[in-house]
Design brief:
By secondary structure, this protein is an alpha/beta fold. The chain is built from 7 helices and 6 strands, in the order αβββααββααβαα. About 35% of the residues lie in helices and about 15% in strands. A hairpin with a 5-residue loop joins β2 and β3. α4 packs across α6. Its main location: nucleus.
Length: about 260
């Protein structure tokens, strides 16, 4: 799967703002352990924190549930915070070779803000990667930020859900060599994108699997770690926007007050 161009990422950002009300967002990121048959002679290399054998899929998703960048093949043992940082995707972002567009204002006459990717607590906080505020008893403005981020990030969860519903290979442990698992996963993602582009799967999110049809995906564990001063400042800038007259959405307070995130 080719790396997205700046033009594609800018188009994604425009749609994330219009559909999911999160400006300067180029993708939602998620990661999953894909359960596999233990490879011969692998020892604990592919043994993940859930005590099953797996390989790891990191994926960025656009606002319309398409996979735009993936990194597949990391072994399950690498399930800590270093997984993302040591991946090809993580290194490209850190080295500024991924093609993230230049900063731009999200309000008229406002200061330029970075284009960002939204993720959950399984990913580190970076100037280009926003994750929720941690902890309980958060202030109202932090709860609003977490809601707005969660709303945009959910497209990655939904994309994985659609993938499992339509490609039933992900409903059972994959019993082939890890190298072939990579090929199966990448082929499925490409077919998923093709069918999404052809307006198929539009009702997929309304379908439910039976209790016996649970996907073999396992979420990545949450990680700790301190955010950099720059990353904290970027998150605070988005928080101020989401609680301002220019950036608020009419339903956010009802959602936050109801505790629905």
């Amino acid at each position: 799967m080719p790396q997205p161009t700046k033009g594609i990422l800018i188009s994604c950002a425009e749609k994330f703002e219009s559909i999911w009300n999160f400006p300067n967002c180029v993708a939602a990121i998620d990661g999953k352990h894909i359960t596999i048959q233990a490879p011969a002679g692998s020892g604990s290399l592919s043994f993940n924190y859930k005590k099953t054998f797996s390989i790891v899929l990191l994926a960025m998703v656009d606002p319309e549930y398409r996979f735009i960048a993936v990194d597949v093949g990391g072994y399950g043992k690498n399930s800590d915070g270093g997984l993302f940082n040591n991946s090809r995707m993580g290194k490209a972002l850190q080295n500024n070779t991924f093609g993230i567009p230049e900063d731009r204002p999200i309000t008229e006459n406002g200061k330029p803000l970075p284009f960002v990717i939204v993720g959950d607590e399984a990913f580190p906080s970076k100037t280009y990667l926003m994750r929720p505020y941690p902890g309980r008893g958060l202030s109202e403005d932090k709860k609003i930020f977490n809601y707005r981020l969660s709303r945009a990030r959910r497209v990655s969860e939904n994309a994985f859900g659609i993938l499992c519903q339509k490609f039933r290979v992900f409903l059972n442990k994959i019993q082939v060599h890890p190298n072939n698992v990579d090929k199966i996963v990448l082929s499925s993602l490409c077919l998923h994108n093709f069918l999404r582009s052809d307006n198929v799967f539009l009702n997929a999110l309304d379908e439910e699997n039976s209790e016996k049809e649970r996907p073999i995906f396992i979420n990545l564990p949450h990680i700790g770690g301190k955010s950099s001063t720059d990353a904290i400042e970027v998150r605070e800038d988005f928080t101020k926007y989401f609680t301002s007259a220019a950036g608020t959405v009419p339903w956010q307070m009802d959602t936050v007050n109801a505790g629905i995130l």
